[in-house]
Amino acid sequence: MLDQADPTRAKPIRSHNGYRLGCASGLVAAVLALIVAISAAALIPVDSCACTTPLDLVVQNYSHQDVSVSWSQPGLFGSPLRGLSGGVMAPSCRTLLAGLRSGVVEVSVNAGGVSRTFHLHVRDGLTDGHATIVVGADANIADPTSGDGGPSQQDPLC
To answer: What residues pair up with 75 in beta bridges, in sequence order?
Structure first.
C-alpha cells in the first residue's frame, strides 16, 4: 500500500489560513503602495517653478554692504515636511525681489551686525500686495510696509 499514491494527497491542500495570508499580504502591499504614493506627493515642492510665484518680498538695500535675508515657514502640521526655508544675500545698493509661499513666513534680515526678524502674512487676505523692507545707509532695518506694484529693476539705490 505504500507504493500506491493516495488520490487525496496528490492535490495541494489549500487551508483557510493560507488563503487569508494571501489576502492579508495583498492588503498590506496595497496600503504600503498608498503610503509610498502619499509620501512621494508630500515631497514635491509646492512652488516648483519660480516663474509662477508672485512677488511677495522686496528688500531695498541702501547700505554699502551686503545684507543677509533668510526666511522659514513651517510645513504640514507645524513640521518641517513641505516647509519652506531659504536665504540669499541682498547686494549693496540693490533691490532684492523674492516670491514666497502663502501663509505666515518668518523673515530675518541681518545688516552689519544689526538683525531683525519679522512675521509676514503672505497672500492670506491680511496684506495688500508685497512686503517691503528697507535697509538704510546706516544699516538700520525698518519695519516692513505693504503695497501693490513694486520695483522691477535692479538699478543701484545709492
So the answer is: none
